[in-house]
């Protein structure tokens, strides 16, 4: 048995910036290193630790973020509802928010994306809520084409001000629950 059985029995192919390797597995790693080495991965993770409420029914509000966990080329702006990108690409905006009904009346919450202050057509979703202290989780994503300097906002509205986006403090057995979390990712090289 050969000493090194894990070695691929193939001629060595150099990986250099000026030469594309001739074997498919080398091409894969060359492209991967090119993407990682050029800083083309763009991402951000944001969350908010406060309750968010609506002052009036049937009114659009931008959801805010008061913390940045990780960020490379995607960042919070002013106001803190705006998530900016520094390069063009197709960005995946994933969010999760905790809704709570504060009264027994039936209510509906609407959630949708907005880019550069303009609502994205055909993008809203509604959640029907009822019951006192009933909690609901809204979690989905939007893949949107963005340009350098564009900003994304997650919007919401409710038919009843007795609906809120709820943050919960840590307990003895569980970490704190942010009212909203947002993860943004984009691979510019794709």
Short structural summary:
The protein is mostly beta strands and 190 residues long.
Describe the protein in words.
With about 190 residues, the chain is mainly beta. It has a single domain (about 40-185), classed as Jelly Rolls, CATH 2.60.120.40. It is built from one helix and 14 strands, in the order H-E-E-E-E-E-E-E-E-E-E-E-E-E-E. It has one helix spanning about 25-35; strands at about 40-50, 50-55, 60, 65-70, 75, 85, 90-100, 105-115, 120, 125-130, 135-145, 150-160, 165, 180-185. Strands 1, 2, 4, 7, 11, 13 and 14 form a seven-stranded antiparallel beta sheet that branches. Strands 3, 5, 6, 8, 9, 10 and 12 form a seven-stranded antiparallel beta sheet that branches. The longest helix has 14 residues, at about 25-35. The mean pLDDT is about 85.
Helix share of residues?
under 10%
> In whole angstroms, how far apart are the ends?
42 Å
Number of H- or I-type helical stretches = 1
Taking the sheet with the most strands, its summary is: 7 strands, antiparallel
Beta-strand percent range? 35-45%
Q: Would you give the CATH topology?
A: Jelly Rolls
Structural class comes to mainly beta
Low-pLDDT stretches: none
Radius of gyration: 22 Å
> Based on DSSP secondary structure assignment, what is the total number of beta strands?
14
Kindly give the count of domains: 1
Q: What is the mean predicted local confidence, pLDDT? A: 87
Oligomer: single chain
CATH class, named: Mainly Beta
Order of helices and strands: HEEEEEEEEEEEEEE
CATH architecture: Sandwich
Shape: globular
